Amino acid sequence: MEQICGAPVQRGGGRLELVSDSRNRDVAVDGDSGAVGEWLSGVGSVLIAVYIILAIAATARSVFQILTRFDEAPLAYTLSAVAGAVYILATVALIMGRRRERRVWRALAWAALSFELAGVLTVGTLSLTHPEIFGHETVWSLYGAGYIWVPLVLPVLGMLWLRREGTTEDPEPTPDPNESLY
Amino acid sequence: MILWYGIVIIAVGLIAAVLCFVASARKRGPNDYTLGATLLGALLLLVQIVISAIAPAAGNPPEGDPLEFWMYLIIAFLLPPGAAFWALVDRTRWANLVLAVVNLSVAVMTYRMLVIWG
User: What is the ipTM of this complex?
Assistant: First the structure.
């Protein structure tokens, strides 16, 4: 992951700009201001896109499993449905919590991401130690191996993003006029 | 499914994913090439929908669950247009990364479809 140097400072309009070392960083192409803010905002939008795909994948799979073979592994498939619901919640919370002021959504995002990380670690381990109960394919089995380990990596990236974004000012490239007084 | 056609979809998905990833790494916004490659995947999947609808009548039925297969196919078909719409709104290089992720997903999902069909 690219490391960003240069101290961000706040200017009058609440926009971010790099004081120095901006020549060879990712400025200019995407827009006109705030390399750090742009970068965080961009990474955030990609995270949200991946979350949308994972939410659809996990939910669709659990719907199918519950419709067709719920009796085979009720616990694993119930968990699968819960995982799908939490991915949807995380997606919505990340979208709504993009502005720091929305603390409730941010807290929800933190909670959903923590739950996901705990879930993938717990179910991933249980699928190895108790395959008779958790051996059925779910989004979290084998630490998310069926989804190229995206379920393991994504909550960590999401938390890093929430933390980084929480420490810098105004990552939003298009401020909402109603909230710009902040 | 027709094996070689499935492999074509996977190959196009992977190539499109690399193309979009490189464009994003070079800090380019979405352009005709990245959008075109993504929509080519959608077009191939549309043809796959027709193939899958006809194949059972032509003596090539799925071995796996048809419902599971169709869920994969429909969702895979809807992803590229959704991402393309995203790329039309978000003109930054990050939209190319979104396109790359979606094309990779299409490749993975098509592989899963081949497995389900048998």
Answer: 0.90
